[in-house]
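ARCHIVE CARD
CATEGORY: sequence design from structure
SOURCE FIELD: tokenized fold
FIELD CONTENT:
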């Protein structure tokens, strides 16, 4: 996805300099940009405009961005890309667990921002799709028949390995926290995160050409994992 006037981006940011930078960057890329400077205004515009994606600063003058995420998720599945100077991993995990799709720390570069925005939009389109077969790069996952292939060759996964991969596929492009994956794959059991790391390593051994340099399942340090969407 490369932008275009039919893709509406809502920026919720109170810093004039960052707001101007985002506005100019996105408009040059062809996006239809709308803006809010407070959480309350942002919530109203999400309801009114139904944007394709929201870029949200966590440090707003009237309310915490975490509360904005929580309220948006009560009525909308719109992708939310969080911007914040908060660098703590706990803050990232909280934002993602509350429903944000991705997290970019300030300061950030244009290339990183645009890549994360395109990924979030692609995740939205994938989630809206009804095809039972997911494909990215050389990886193909048949969600109906639980069949996985890499470069056309079938890959045998254990039940738990498949459950983890399926959750990543269903949310392809989105960062999933350790807690999210543990809850999904272990049905809410109290399981140590180390078990998840072991299974991720096993899945990479089966999917990746170079497991130590993965291209499909990427690690978000201290936060979780994402299934990288590829052309």
């Amino acid at each position: 996805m490369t932008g275009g006037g039919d893709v509406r981006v809502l920026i919720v940011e109170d810093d004039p300099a960052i707001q101007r930078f985002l506005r100019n960057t996105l408009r040059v890329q062809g996006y239809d940009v709308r803006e809010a400077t407070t959480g309350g205004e942002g919530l109203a515009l999400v309801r009114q405009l139904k944007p394709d994606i929201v870029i949200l600063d966590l440090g707003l003058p009237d309310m915490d961005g975490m509360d904005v995420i929580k309220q948006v998720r009560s009525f909308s599945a719109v992708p939310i890309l969080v911007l914040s100077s908060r660098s703590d991993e706990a803050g990232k995990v909280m934002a993602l667990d509350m429903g944000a799709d991705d997290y970019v720390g300030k300061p950030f570069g244009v290339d990183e921002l645009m890549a994360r925005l395109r990924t979030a939009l692609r995740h939205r389109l994938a989630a809206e799709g009804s095809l039972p077969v997911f494909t990215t790069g050389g990886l193909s996952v048949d969600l109906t028949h639980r069949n996985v292939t890499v470069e056309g060759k079938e890959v045998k996964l254990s039940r738990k390995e498949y459950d983890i991969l399926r959750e990543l596929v269903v949310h392809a492009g989105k960062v999933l926290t350790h807690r999210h994956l543990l809850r999904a794959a272990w049905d809410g059991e109290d399981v140590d995160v180390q078990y998840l790391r072991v299974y991720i390593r096993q899945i990479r051994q089966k999917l990746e050409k170079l497991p130590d340099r993965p291209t499909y399942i990427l690690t978000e340090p201290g936060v979780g994992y994402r299934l990288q969407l590829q052309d």
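CARD ANNOTATION: The chain has a mean pLDDT of 88. The helical segments are 16-28, 39-49, 65-73, 89-97, 110-128, 159-170, 178-185, 193-207.
SHELF: design records, drawer C
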